[in-house]
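Look over this today:
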Amino acid sequence: LETLRLEAAFNTAAGFDEDDDELPAFFTDEPLPPTGKTNRLFSQEVNQQMQALLGSVAAE
């Protein structure tokens, strides 16, 4: 978790925000062989979970 905290701190200091975490459209638009499935995780959901994880660890 320390690595995730350091990465988040670096990204914030460098001026990155959640908009910069968005994956290219082909991750959600193009099906992958052999299953034909596409990505099911979206940046907003991942960012919310990351903030919850880092927040819960900071509270300990």
Observations:
- The two ends are 13 Å apart (CA to CA).
- The mean pLDDT is 85.
- The first helix runs from residue 2 to 13.
- Helices lie at 2-13, 26-29, 43-58.
